[in-house]
From TrEMBL:
Span of domain GCVT N-terminal: 41-298
Organism lineage string: Eukaryota, Viridiplantae, Streptophyta, Embryophyta, Tracheophyta
Species per Swiss-Prot/TrEMBL record: Dioscorea zingiberensis
Protein name as it appears in the record: Aminomethyltransferase
Coiled-coil regions listed in the entry: none
Catalytic activity: N(6)-[(R)-S(8)-aminomethyldihydrolipoyl]-L-lysyl-[protein] + (6S)-5,6,7,8-tetrahydrofolate = N(6)-[(R)-dihydrolipoyl]-L-lysyl-[protein] + (6R)-5,10-methylene-5,6,7,8-tetrahydrofolate + NH4(+)
Known partners and oligomeric status: The glycine cleavage system is composed of four proteins: P, T, L and H.
Compartments where found: Mitochondrion
EC number(s) recorded for this UniProt protein: 2.1.2.10
Ranges of residues in domain Aminomethyltransferase C-terminal: 323-399
GO CC terms of this entry: glycine cleavage complex; mitochondrion
Length: 406
């Protein structure tokens, strides 16, 4: 859901539902062919009132006892704990892991300092986006990354096939898929003070985009300071056998202020200005068109070397034909595939995601429009169920980010 009603979430979930992936031990409970997979926190969600729905081949919580809007607001005001164990964490190892990864993504991986990371995009030969990912250069010969649940199978097949060719030419790289670990995302103003109560490491010295291996609640964890909601927060990779205990400890240490949150709140929070792969970008949309040119390092722009580089670098030079933009609008909340028209009635694009923002108390949406029609302040019309409603293009993110930076 993007905030406009449960029917809208149902549409979104249906669009993003993928075939069940092959399960592995620890990460999920065993399931018969065709059944939804379950994270190790599945029963914990149910015990806490989680309404479970299918998502990307998994049974995931849509919401808990609070309404989706209340859950969204609590993340902004206090904090939320999300189970994101359906996503796929993996490590690349070997002295050539950096050049190998640079042959797949747009980031300047070599330019990252050890212990730091960046958002990046896996591209295809047409310049389209196979998936987005947060990558971390742990050391010069170890990279940790997380890919989206719905893209897991195609991502692993893509990386694996490229790795075979790379190694056949003498490259030193291998990988490990972390199906023995679970992922928790802790987001909001109380994320750092609450998590600090569970570790001896000084989290005030860990900044946005940085990575550390440390003990949390007695478990050896991978900790990335990141905030896909726009809030300060962390993504915690924890051994699956310790995941439930860690979730309980976080909730208890917050004295009830940090609450469990599900897909409904997550989607509203993401719409604050971040792309959601499968909705706001896909294999037919380039990083430049998606507004992610900033993720292409200066050296990569000069040297290329990633799939579709010629197309993408030409778009940077000449400008793309379409651009991702944000909208405020009147009337009912916009939904995916709603037509966007200029003030004169010409079709100029299409909405990719939209809904009502409980924080801003207004409709917000993202979509793609023709270049030249993308300037903030430009008036537009959004067509919903055959009716035209006023809209205006606005800068993103809609909600200012609160990342913890030096």
């Amino acid at each position: 859901m993007r905030g406009g009603g449960l029917w809208q979430l149902g549409q979104s979930l249906t669009r993003r539902l993928s075939q069940s992936h092959n399960h592995r031990k620890h990460r999920c409970f065993a399931a018969a062919a065709g059944e939804l997979k379950k994270t190790v926190l599945h029963d914990f969600h149910s015990e806490n009132g989680g309404k479970m729905v299918p998502f990307a081949g998994w049974s995931m919580p849509l919401q808990y006892k609070d309404s989706i809007i209340d859950s969204t607001l609590n993340c902004r005001e206090n904090g939320s704990l999300f189970d994101v164990s359906h996503m796929c964490g993996l490590s690349l190892m070997g002295k050539d892991c950096v050049p190998f990864l640079e042959s797949l993504v747009i980031a300047d991986v070599a330019g990252l300092k050890p212990g730091t990371g960046s958002l990046t995009v896996f591209t295809n030969e047409q310049g389209g986006s196979i998936d987005d990912s947060v990558i971390t250069k742990v050391t010069d010969d170890l990279i940790y990354l997380v890919v989206n649940a719905g893209c897991r199978d195609k991502d692993l097949a893509h990386i694996g096939s490229r790795m075979e060719g790379f190694k056949a030419k003498g490259g030193d790289v291998s990988w490990h898929i972390h199906d023995e670990r679970s992922l928790l995302a802790l987001q909001g103003p109380l994320a750092a003070p609450v998590l600090q109560l569970l570790t001896k490491d000084d989290l005030s010295k860990l900044y946005f985009g940085e990575f550390r291996k440390l003990d949390i609640n007695g478990s050896h964890c991978f900790l990335t300071r990141t905030g896909y909601t726009g809030e300060d927060g962390f993504e915690i990779s924890v051994p699956s056998e310790n995941a439930v205990d860690l979730a309980k400890a976080i909730l208890e240490k917050s004295e009830g202020k940090v609450k469990l949150a599900g897909l409904g709140a997550r989607d509203i929070l993401l719409l604050a200005g971040l792309c959601l792969y499968g909705n706001d970008m896909d294999e037919h949309v380039s990083p430049v068109e998606a507004g992610l040119t900033w993720a292409i390092g200066k050296r990569r722009r000069a040297e290329g070397g990633f799939p579709g580089a010629n197309i993408i670098l030409k778009q940077i030079e000449d400008g793309p034909k379409i651009r991702r933009v944000g909208f405020f609008s009147s009337g009912p909340p916009p939904r995916s595939h709603s037509e966007i028209q200029s003030s004169s009635g010409e079709k100029i694009g299409e909405v990719t995601s939209g809904g009502f923002s409980p924080c801003l108390k207004k409709n917000i949406a993202m979509g793609y429009v023709k270049s030249g029609c993308h300037k903030p302040g430009s008036e537009a019309k959004i067509i919903i169920r055959g009716k035209s409603y006023d809209g205006v293009i606005t800068k993103m993110p809609f909600v200012p980010t609160k990342y913890y930076k030096p």
